[in-house]
Specification:
Helix 3 crosses helix 4. 27% of the residues lie in helices and 31% in strands. The two termini are 84 Å apart.
């Protein structure tokens, strides 16, 4: 539009001041027959042979009309161009401009999801059910969850509660290929399980393993899983807290040093990875705190430092050799009602570590009266107030260690040495 206006202005501003040689005059338009003949002899002869027609130069009015017509034509063209350009400019305002480029943090998140999605799997828990009418045994899905590829040998890590009670398990990779899975081993106390699938190595993408010991509250985290059965969903958040403690869904045993995050974790996310901003595994999403069962912004993940040692034992031995005292103890509330502090021994089997050491169980006398057993008040000098304290102390010990158990027996205190033994095999 600006170009058209410039041309229009230039023409009309320069026309009156054109050089003399470019302006038509009477002298330049009046060409005599003699001059014409001198320029073109042949043409002059033809003109001379026409007795009734003589050549005369065009009058000045004709030239002016011609110039006026030329000016009108040029003006029309200029106006047409200006209108066209104006229409184009106004129409361009309605054209959808391409989206802006993603920001650096957005690109990093997209790249993290694309690089780690092939490592995340979908696990289906199948249970055997007998049809009431045909008596046929059918396999029906009774639950699902997430998991991730641990190594090129086909080991898959997930939560124990995802596979609990399954007659068969199926693992679906990111490319939607499904494989039957076998249970390598599990740790109910820490809610960790290891499966194995026979998949080609080129389809297995082990997840990069990070470290959870140096995590900080406030750093960004990313959770990938299959919530509500949806395929590969990414949620983001930050670490809301560290060194939390939750109870195992299977045994009720406390799990220490748990990561708390506000990244949305819903049913189906269980067993999926929690990643840091570098895309490294820092935890397994295992539980949420929500009365409704949906994400309320408080999720928990088992730290990778805890998971790594468990997985190594399960892959190598098929079980976790965790030390135990070999006792059954009363609920904490029951002990509180007695007005004492500690762990009340309900049963100490004679073939267990505590039974061999001489710890006494709770029993009834011949009249049916309850005789309390030993009440454990400390282990290796560390105070024991409830069952969580006892588990926390034992988690720091190894199989074969000798610990000094201090008990309240009747009205006096005794110290009993106990040699810790491995946890028996579980079916």
């Amino acid at each position: 539009m600006a170009a058209a206006h410039s041309f229009f202005f230039f023409f009309f501003s320069t026309y009156p001041s054109l050089p003399h040689r470019f302006r038509p005059t009477n002298s330049t338009l009046s060409i005599s027959r003699t001059a014409f003949a001198q320029r073109n002899l042949h043409t002059a002869c033809i003109v001379a042979s026409l007795p009734h027609r003589t050549y005369s130069p065009p009058p000045e009015s004709v030239v002016n009309k011609f110039l006026d017509s030329l000016v009108v034509l040029i003006t029309s063209v200029a106006l047409s161009v200006s209108v066209f350009v104006t229409d184009v400019d106004s129409a361009a305002a309605f054209v959808v401009t391409p989206s802006r480029k993603l920001q650096t943090d957005e690109l990093a998140t997209v790249r993290l999801f694309q690089e780690n999605t092939p490592s995340v799997v979908y696990i289906t828990n199948l249970a055997a059910r007998q049809d009431a009418f045909t008596l046929d045994v059918l396999e029906v899905p009774q639950g699902s969850g997430s998991g991730f590829v641990w190594d090129k040998k086909g080991h898959v890590v997930t939560n124990y509660h995802v596979i609990r009670g399954a007659s068969d398990l199926r693992v679906t990779l990111a490319d939607q290929t499904t494989y039957d899975a076998k249970v390598v081993g599990f740790d109910q106390d820490k809610d960790v399980a290891v499966l194995r699938i026979d998949a080609p190595k080129d389809k297995l993408r082990p997840i990069p393993v990070g470290v959870s010991a140096d995590l900080l509250v406030g750093q960004k985290v990313y959770a990938i899983g299959n919530p509500f059965g949806l395929d590969h969903t990414l949620t983001t958040g930050v670490i809301s807290g560290l060194r939390r403690e939750i109870s195992s869904a299977a045994t009720g045993r406390p799990i220490q040093d748990v990561i708390q995050t506000d990244a949305a974790i819903n049913p189906g996310n269980s067993g999926g990875p929690l990643l840091d901003s570098s895309g490294n595994l820092i935890g397994i999403n295992t539980a949420i705190y929500s009365p409704s069962g949906a994400s309320s912004g408080v999720g928990f993940s088992i730290p990778v430092d805890t998971v790594g040692g468990i997985v190594d034992q399960l892959v190598q031995f098929g079980k976790v050799t965790r030390p135990i005292l070999g006792i059954k103890f009363a609920p904490d509330k029951s002990v509180e009602q007695l007005g004492v502090s500690g762990v009340l021994v309900l049963d100490a089997p004679p073939n267990g570590p505590a039974g061999k050491a001489g710890l006494q169980s709770t029993k009834r006398d011949t009249y049916g009266r309850l005789i309390l057993g030993d009440i454990i008040t400390s282990v290796n000098g560390k105070k024991v107030v409830n069952g969580s304290d006892l588990y926390r102390i034992l988690d720091q010990c190894k199989v074969g260690d000798m610990v000094t158990v201090e008990v309240l027996r009747g009205d006096h205190v005794e110290k009993i040495p106990v040699v810790l033994e491995p946890k028996p095999d579980e079916s």
